[in-house]
Specification:
Layout lengths: L2 E5 L3 H12 L3 E5 L13 E4 L1 H6 L3 E4 L3 H9 L2 H4 L3 E4 L4 E3 L5 E4 L6 H8 L4 E4 L6 H4 L11 E5 L2 H13 L7 E5 L4 H6 L4 H8 L11
Parallel strand pairs: 1-2, 1-4, 2-3, 4-5, 5-8, 9-10
Antiparallel strand pairs: 6-7, 8-9
Helix pairs in contact: 3-5
Length: 210
């Protein structure tokens, strides 16, 4: 069992919290005051972001990507020596509220986080799909891909194990290399709004097929 903290109690964070708690992990969901969400009877602890980060082994960033760097940099002491799993995309919204451009062209949120948090092992994953696929990859007709980017090999192995608890088969996990490879997967988000505009929020992932 791993103690897991999730920063962000929106659809992504809550979905991950429920799935990881159901898999047997001790989960703390970082929320703002009076921001608790239903958890279907699962044992999920609630705390503020600083407490969530300081009391868990693995921290998942599910906060809005355009403000995540400032928010997580403020938690540098709490995130020291932790694995930080970044599932967010830092984008600028188009007029319809869907992603229209990248906040860090030529870089990525994951790279910015790693530079700002040198004592933390940042791993980028699960940012190339709609949120419901993160915890139920088998629902798609073609096996999806979960990409991994990160500098620390042991941290990536730990995250791969958590992906397995979410239903990801080892063959579906593609380790791209160090944290600089996250700029490729974060750029994939620019495909997503065009697909959503044509098909709505039908579950899909940007994947490799072989």
């Amino acid at each position: 069992m791993t103690t897991i903290g999730i920063l962000g109690a929106g659809r992504v964070g809550t979905n991950l919290a429920r799935a990881l708690a159901a898999a047997g992990h001790q989960v703390t969901l970082g929320v703002r005051e009076n921001d608790e969400t239903p958890t279907d009877g699962l044992k999920i602890r609630y705390a503020d972001h600083a407490t969530t980060a300081s009391t868990t082994d693995v921290v998942i960033n599910a906060t809005p990507g355009d403000s995540a760097l400032t928010r997580l940099t403020a938690l540098r002491p709490e995130l020291e020596n932790k694995i930080l799993v970044d599932v967010s995309n830092a984008t600028i919204d188009a007029a319809d509220g869907l992603p229209g451009d990248l906040c860090y062209p030529g870089s990525s949120l994951a790279e910015q986080l790693q530079a700002a948090l040198p004592g933390t092992q940042v791993v980028k994953t699960l940012n190339t799909m709609l949120f419901m696929v993160m915890t139920d990859p088998g629902r798609l007709t073609v096996p999806p891909t979960a990409y991994l980017s990160g500098n620390d090999e042991q941290a990536k192995k730990t995250v791969t194990g958590l992906l397995g608890d979410l239903g990801w088969e080892p063959a579906w996990v593609e380790d791209l290399g160090d944290i600089t490879t996250a700029r490729a997967t974060e750029a994939m988000i620019l495909t997503v709004p065009h697909v959503i505009r044509r098909n709505g929020f039908t579950p899909f992932a940007v994947s490799i097929t072989r």
